[in-house]
Design goal:
By secondary structure, the chain is mainly alpha-helical. The protein has four helices and no strands. Helix content is about 70%, strand content about 0%. The protein is elongated. About 0% of the residues are buried. This is Cell division protein FtsL.
Length: about 140
C-alpha cells in the first residue's frame, strides 16, 4: 500500500503543478493582452491629438486669411477692382449702450408724458384714486 500512497501523492503534485502552470500562463497572457490594448489606446490618442493640433492650425490659418480679407485696404481695393461702387460708412455701425436697456426704452416710450413742455402747458392731468364707498 505504500506504493499506492506515493503514486497518489505524485499524481496530485503533478496535477497541482499543471494547474499552477496553466493559471500563471493565463495571468501572463492576460497581462500581455492588457499591455497591448493600452498600447493601441495610446497610439489612437496620439493620432487624435495630432489631428486636433492640425485642425487648430488650419483654423488659425483660415482666421488669419479672413482677417486679412476684412481689412479696409483690401476691401477698398476689391471695390475698385470689381467696380462695385460701394462707399465706406460715415458713422459707426455699432453703438455701445452703457445704461440699462429697460430704463432707456421706458424713457423713450414715455418721453411725451414726462416732457417738460407737457408740464408747462398743462396737458398732463394728475390721476386721482377714489374708494368705492366714498361719494366724493
Amino acid at each position: 500500500m505504500n506504493k499506492k500512497d506515493t503514486h497518489a501523492f505524485v499524481n496530485q503534485l503533478l496535477i497541482y503543478t499543471l494547474v499552477m502552470i496553466c493559471f500563471s500562463g493565463s495571468i501572463g497572457l492576460g497581462t500581455v493582452w492588457l499591455r497591448h490594448q493600452i498600447s493601441l489606446t495610446a497610439n489612437n490618442t496620439k493620432l487624435l491629438e495630432q489631428r486636433i493640433v492640425e485642425a487648430e492650425r488650419h483654423l488659425s490659418e483660415l482666421n488669419t486669411q479672413v482677417t486679412g480679407e476684412q481689412s479696409i485696404d483690401v476691401l477698398a481695393r476689391r471695390n475698385t477692382e470689381w467696380k462695385l461702387g460701394l462707399v465706406l460708412p460715415k458713422e459707426p455701425q455699432v453703438v455701445r449702450v452703457s445704461e440699462s436697456p429697460e430704463r432707456r426704452l421706458a424713457s423713450r416710450n414715455n418721453a411725451e408724458v414726462f416732457a417738460p413742455e407737457a408740464v408747462i402747458t398743462g396737458t398732463v392731468t394728475p390721476v386721482r384714486f377714489r374708494l368705492a364707498n366714498n361719494s366724493r
